[in-house]
Specification:
Chain A: Keywords: Oxidoreductase. Chain A: GO terms for molecular function: oxidoreductase activity. Chain A: InterPro entries: Ald_DH/histidinol_DH (IPR016161), Ald_DH_N (IPR016162), Aldehyde_DH_dom (IPR015590). The complex is a heterodimer of chains A (about 270) and B (about 475). Chain A is an alpha/beta fold and about 270 residues long. Helix content of chain A is about 40%, strand content about 20%. In chain A, a hairpin with a 6-residue loop joins strand 3 and strand 4. Chain A is globular and about 90 Å long. In chain B, the strands form four sheets. In chain B, strands 13-14-15-12-11-16-17 form a seven-stranded mixed β-sheet, sandwiched between helices. Chain B starts with 18 loop residues before the first strand and ends in a 14-residue tail after the last strand. Classes of the chains: A alpha/beta (about 270), B alpha/beta (about 475). Chains A and B meet through strand 4, helix 8 and strand 10 of A and helix 8, strand 17 and strand 18 of B. Strand 10 of chain A pairs parallel with strand 17 of chain B, so a sheet runs across the interface.
Chain lengths: ~270, ~475
């Protein structure tokens, strides 16, 4: 009897919420390249916002140095696990750029406040200083590519925000989640939902405990406009779609500053 | 107690015409359909002037003029744009007494505020941004940042000329052209500013002023050839604007309402804190988006502080805005007075205890005595809604953590105040407050170099400082 070929063990690609990998509470799945992936629901989106909100104060309150260390650790883990992305069509140069992007953002953690804040020379006997602070919980419709995905997550989290990411490419995104889960990133800082973003994004756009909405990956102008309208209900900060985005280009500061608030503190001077 | 003899500032420094047109493309013209509205002195209900009400065709014409002017204004060397702005700043300084009296007449604010706060800040704002016009490459927005195009700007009635300065100065410095709509109840200082633009020989179309009510503003916001919308006003209208701009690609900044907590700890110097509480809520009749309208006082000193506060409130002089001794002027409009009156009645109905000092209010005009409510809980509407008047809600707390939680328990996030002698506490509490401006041991201070703007539903974007340039750069 001929030796039979070994039957491979297939992986289910589950959601990433609060540092854990749950299935969708709806029990729904869809098939990607022969594997099952979770089809996120409204309830999953709400759970992810809860996890992101719970994680946000501690993440924002960590020292900038510490956040930088965590982000750099992500780059280390990504380098070590780079081959895991190959089956999903991520080429070597995109992988290089993705890892280098994490390293670039890791370094920003303790520099952005000096670049965007500082003392203001007011005309009076006052100490006056402006500092950037995270806006809070950011809901993101990510672009499909790995480099695009990292290019929306990293600027949000390095600045102390926590994110709920709607990822169109389930396998790439959940493989990245597995990297994050083994990289000292506190649970809830990054939450990733897979499935149809057109179904889940409207709930996040209207969610009262979401502070900002990044629509970078939204492909349809009409859906983007609808989400932006929904975001107006609680005056969320909105990053509009970038259908022609070149993620290999220098991102500049805007991806970070768009998710930062400026706080200005005054105090009188006197003896 | 001493009494004060009347000390009125002379009206003769300002000449108000009986009617004003729209300022479009460097000229004053009536509106296309001939519609006008009246602007009144809220202290006397006397009609000051008739002002053109801009319809959609007038707004079209203003936006067209701004678009034509944009070609040359945006390509003018920054150093030349700077000099126009310096000229404007200087003319404002030289005409500041006239403009201060005008502002007090049209708005109702005390002359000591329009003279000592509004006008100096207006001139300073133009001076500040004038200097940026030829230095934009150093501002941190890339080596060669570009203007956006035509900015549609809508401003409120509480600081008419100052809000105009906050909008127009950075827009022009960065090479944009503007169509600005002043508030319906306070159009005059913007029209005088139009005259200043002519005096400065600013090229026609760079600044256009369209007067009118909400419809005029809506035409401007929805105009397809406007690239940028900047609005200061209520959160409710801000939401509408954000909805209507959605999907158009227009850039948007919003400076909206507030319900600021002014937190007084038990180690605060009481007399200084009382002055800060008074300027926090009674400055400009409380018509201030960043007003310290919720007093959070540590329980152990509440009684002592309230005693001092009431004594201080009893010395506030309410009356003629042109009197140099007046502390609290007129409420800006009958509609605003009605809103303040209604919310105050609700405050009493909901069980809070209302107190005002005895004060004689004039027979004519719109007036509201300075008022405090004690025994207010977080559920009371007067603790949640922006009253935009001289009404203070007093709540108490026991621990710093409770103070922070109560301060942040609002959809707004514009400003906050902290009063304590302990430096480490100031820094810790300031870090935890979700508000764009935190005044520690002071309140209601403004400066062109200091970024101003809100968290959460108080809007987005910053005005003032280097940060204020970003709203007008691509």
């Amino acid at each position: 009897m001929p030796k039979s070929a070994r039957l491979a063990v297939r992986k289910t690609y589950k959601l990433f919420i609060g540092g854990a990998f749950p299935r969708s509470e709806s029990g729904r799945t869809f098939v990607v390249n022969g594997d099952n992936a979770a089809l996120a629901s409204r309830k999953d989106a709400r759970d992810a916002v809860l996890a992101a909100r719970a994680a946000q104060p501690k993440w924002a309150g960590a020292t900038a140095y510490n956040r930088g260390q965590v982000l750099y650790r992500i780059a280390e883990m990504l380098e070590a696990r780079r081959r895991e992305f190959t089956p999903f069509g991520v080429k070597a140069d995109e992988m290089d750029a993705t890892i280098d992007r994490w390293v670039w953002y890791a370094g920003w953690s303790d520099k952005i406040a000096q670049v965007t804040g500082g003392a203001n020379p007011v005309a009076g006997p006052f100490f006056n200083i402006s500092s950037p602070e995270p806006t809070g919980v950011v809901a993101v419709v990510a672009p499909p590519s790995l480099l695009g995905l990292v290019s929306v997550i990293a600027p949000a989290v390095v600045t102390g925000n926590t994110v709920v990411v709607l990822a169109p490419e389930a396998q790439t995104a959940i493989t990245l989640a597995e990297v994050l889960a083994t990289s000292d990133v506190p649970g809830g800082v990054v939450n990733i939902l897979t499935g149809k973003y057109a179904e889940t994004a409207p709930w996040l756009a209207a969610h009262a405990d979401v502070n900002a909405l990044d629509l970078t990956g939204v492909e349809h102008a009409e859906l983007a406009a609808e989400l932006e309208r929904a975001a107006a209900g609680t005056l969320k900060r909105v990053i509009r779609p970038r259908p022609d985005a070149d993620f290999t280009a220098d991102p500049g500061l805007r991806p970070m500053t768009a998710l930062l608030e400026t706080k200005t503190v005054w105090h009188p001077k006197g003896e | 107690m001493f009494s004060y003899a009347p000390a009125p500032e002379s009206r003769s420094v300002v000449e108000i015409a009986s009617s004003y047109g729209l300022f479009i493309d460097g000229a004053f013209d009536p509106s296309k359909d001939g519609n006008v509205f009246k602007t009144v002195n809220p202290a006397t209900e006397e009609v000051l002037a008739e002002v053109a009400s801009a319809g959609s065709e007038d707004v079209d014409r203003a936006v067209d003029a701004a678009r034509r002017a944009f070609q040359s204004w945006s390509t003018l060397p920054g150093s030349e744009r700077a000099k126009y702005l310096f000229r404007i700043a200087r003319i404002i300084q030289e005409r500041s007494r006239e403009l201060a009296v005008l502002e007090s007449l049209d708005n109702g604010k005390p002359i000591k505020e329009s003279r000592d706060v509004d006008l100096p800040l207006v001139a300073a704002h133009f001076f500040y941004y004038a200097g940026w016009a030829d230095k934009l490459g150093y501002a941190g927005f890339g080596p060669d940042p570009k203007p956006l195009g035509v900015a549609g700007q809508i401003i409120p009635w509480n600081f008419p000329l100052l809000m105009l300065a906050w909008k127009i100065a950075p827009a022009l410095a960065t090479g944009n052209t503007v169509v600005l709509k002043p508030a319906e109840t306070t159009p005059l200082s913007a029209l005088f500013f139009a005259d200043i633009c002519r005096q400065a020989e600013l090229p026609p179309g760079v600044v256009n002023i369209v007067t009118g009510a909400g419809d005029t503003g809506a035409y401007l916001v929805q105009h397809p050839d406007v690239n940028k919308v900047a609005f200061t006003g209520s959160t409710e209208v801000g939401r509408e604007i954000a909805r209507s701009v959605a999907g158009t690609g227009k850039r948007l900044t919003l400076e909206l309402g507030g319900k600021a907590a002014n937190i007084v700890f038990d180690d605060a110097p009481i007399d200084q804190a009382v002055e800060g509480i008074v300027s926090g809520i009674f400055f400009n009749q409380g018509h201030v988006c960043c007003a310290g309208s919720r007093l959070l006082v540590q329980e152990s000193i509440a009684e002592e502080l309230l005693f001092s506060l009431k004594r201080r409130m009893s010395t506030l002089r309410v009356g003629d805005p042109l009197d140099k001794n007046t502390d609290i002027g007129a409420i800006n409009s009958a509609a605003q007075l009605a809103r303040i009156t209604e919310l105050s009645e609700i405050g009493a109905q909901e069980g809070a205890e209302r107190w005002s000092p005895e004060c004689q209010l004039p027979d004519r005009g719109f007036w509201f005595a300075p008022t405090i409510f004690t025994g207010v809980t977080q559920a009371h509407r007067i603790a949640r809604e922006e009253i935009f008047g001289p009404v203070l809600s007093v709540l108490t707390f026991r621990t710093p953590a409770e103070a922070v939680e109560k301060a942040n328990n609002t959809p707004y996030g514009l400003s906050a105040g902290i009063w304590t002698e302990k430096g480490s506490r100031i820094l810790a509490i300031a870090g935890k407050l979700r508000a764009g401006v935190v005044w520690a041991n002071t309140f209601n201070k403004f400066d062109p170099a200091s970024p101003f703007g809100g968290y959460k539903e108080s809007g987005y974007g910053r005005e003032g400082g280097r940060h204020g340039l970003e709203a007008y750069l691509a």
